[in-house]
Specification:
Layout: H1 4-25, H2 32-56, H3 65-88, H4 92-116
Transmembrane segments: 6-23, 35-56, 68-86, 93-112
Keywords: Membrane, Transmembrane, Transmembrane helix
Length: 121
């Protein structure tokens, strides 16, 4: 779970969060580019979750597998949910929704790393 894919996901999410929050401060609604960038972030998160699921079938499983799987479901669903909500709110608040969604993703990825780093004894 620790690796370049996790770092890339965290960095991309933080860069997009800064962009979306700047657009919110400038009173801009989410543009088509913003929504496509969120879709790209969702694709990156999907790859990360698929790699994590494959890792579940390996020899080093996390200590609390149920919590890990719960975080996996939350992580993969978070960005698409933010996209849907942002499309429903075509004002500056849609940009804020995308920004908050992008800020939460690094926290979820870090929590997945914490859970995965404690192997089953």
């Amino acid at each position: 779970m620790n690796g370049p894919l996790s770092v890339a996901t965290i960095v991309a999410a933080l860069i997009l969060a800064a962009w979306y929050l700047l657009r919110t401060a400038l009173d801009r609604a989410p543009s088509r580019f913003d929504l496509l960038a969120s879709v790209a972030l969702s694709a990156l998160v999907t790859v990360l979750v698929v790699v994590a699921v494959i890792g579940l079938f390996g020899s080093s499983r996390p200590h609390d597998t149920a919590t890990f799987v719960g975080y996996l479901f939350t992580t993969i669903a978070f960005a698409p949910t933010a996209i849907v909500l942002a499309r429903m709110e075509p004002t500056r608040w849609g940009s804020l929704i995308l920004g908050v969604g992008a800020l939460v993703l690094p926290v979820l990825v870090l929590r997945l790393q914490q859970i995965a780093s404690v192997p089953l004894a």
